[in-house]
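Notes on consecutive records. When two proteins share a document, each keeps its own sequence and its own token line. Never mix them. Below: protein one.
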Amino acid sequence: MKILISNDDGVHAEGISVLSLALSEIAEVVTVAPDRNCSGASNSLTLETPLRVQPVEGSGFLAVNGTPTDCVHLALNELVSPEPDLVISGINHGANLGDDVIYSGTVAAATEGRHLGLPAIAISLVGDKHFASAAQVAVQLVKRLQKQPLPADQILNVNVPDLPYAELKGFKITRQGARHRAEEMIRTQDPRGKTIFWLGPPGERQDAGDGTDFAAVDEGFVSITPLRIDLTAYTQMPQLSEWAETLEM
């Protein structure tokens, strides 16, 4: 199996190094990632400036001066031949639970892999200590995929509790939870007295009940949430059709 690895924390992040090393034991690995932290980049592409690729000395990784989506797009179209079998993004430094997937560059890198026709996994550690646990989870998932492949339109969003691997309770298939709206922005001043703003912390949990990714992680389980790109709200289409009938041209 050949695997493309990327992330949003940057090519020098601990998570991607641990993941690449672990997966290289069972597969051929190519690692292409942003040259800096791109957390929160979502599915953005770089359109106004050229992309440059630089090898990272000592690791064999490739650094790109772009977003996570740029990295996967560039890798699959230009850098990796023959095409890999799977795209894995991570290990993210922190959770991607609930609404986080909207903004996550980690999930976006996996999404781009799926958009280009490959099954993809986004994997995040809900903390900052036990990256080896998340890497071992990734290894187990890949081994399972070798025996029973997923459809090419499948994205798995995986969140691993920050625990030693032996203390993880297992795997749960989950749905996305939800957060309340984000906290207010932080207004302050730069050294010259100009007003600046920082994004506030994410909102508190709104839906973290049974079956959610939040609940599974709280209970010590690895959360696996299947995602799809089609955002159509199918259940609302009949009602919206009736509403649209009253519109006038």
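Protein two starts on the next line and is unrelated to protein one.
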Amino acid sequence: MWARACVSAAQRSVLWRAILPDAAWHQRSLRCTHCDEGRLSLSELQHLDCMSPELSSVDLDGLYTHDERGAILQVLNTASREELAGIKLLRGRKSANIVQHREQSGPFNCLQSLLHVPLFKHKTIVKVCQSILSPLQEPAKREKKLHGLKFVKPDVERKQLLAAKTIVSIVFGIRRIAWAHVDHNLTVMDWNQEESHRYMKGPYQPSLYLEEISSAVSNIPAADFYVLEKPGISTQNANLFPVTLHLRTVEAMLHGLLSPHFPRDGQHRVLSVVRTAVGKHFQLMVGEARTSGRELVQQLMADSVTHENPRVLFPHDTLARYRRLFHKAGPDRGEEMCDALLQAIAFYEFLFNDS
């Protein structure tokens, strides 16, 4: 049995001389499983270099027949961003980059021209082309729903989520409701919070909660979907009951105020994401507790300026304002804003990178 990855000729020569008698050395032969060089005597291995050439030197169009190239280019030149996102390795910014390149430079005339699209290298292009030519390799269950979004409830069909142009991610605490308005290219369109000191003061008055939450909702931008954080609070600890009641009250009112048409059309526009799932996605969990995401958010803002293809994009004309607002919130008052932004990013990455 041969190892699947080829080792160097010198290494093979030393290895086989160590395990085979000298008399048998020139009589034995083997066939490399990594290439098509055929059967060779072991004594010839010291002269063999069967490593595949670097893909960067390969003409991508030469790897496919005329009909195959035509089929691939037809998809790349005509498919919408949502349809491209359904192809393996084209989820997220890659599908957006293809559409943007088409709009700016016109349709692709050859596969080699894909190298001009950001985030596309030879190896990636080959895999994308293979996925287009062999779509049946994609798991059929994706057509029903995204199983990778199992921590997002209720279940919504994949095509509806992919068709959404923007979402608003909402995180609420004891004193604040924060939101991040993000589009499908992971561009931050709005990021803010509203504070109230009237919550949890004396008895729970529905009219007070309705007034405060309605005020916050009036400032939240319109979007295709609203994604609420689902906090995980133990029901075993009686001391946390007032907090649990407060959070559940806010959650219920947000559901009602943000989806007023649900009784008529039955379409879910308000979703919930488990808090710990977002924490695990960004490696912010320590045991069962989630740590602060402030440093990560600060890094994302810095990357938006310094990286050509940042993970999340802050428009230059708004980044300074977001930074001031973020720092003005203070070290202990900006957590909801951080969490709202991270939840929006995680939601899209769950959607586009689901496997």
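For the record: Residues 1-27, 42-55, 137-146 have pLDDT under 50 and may be disordered.
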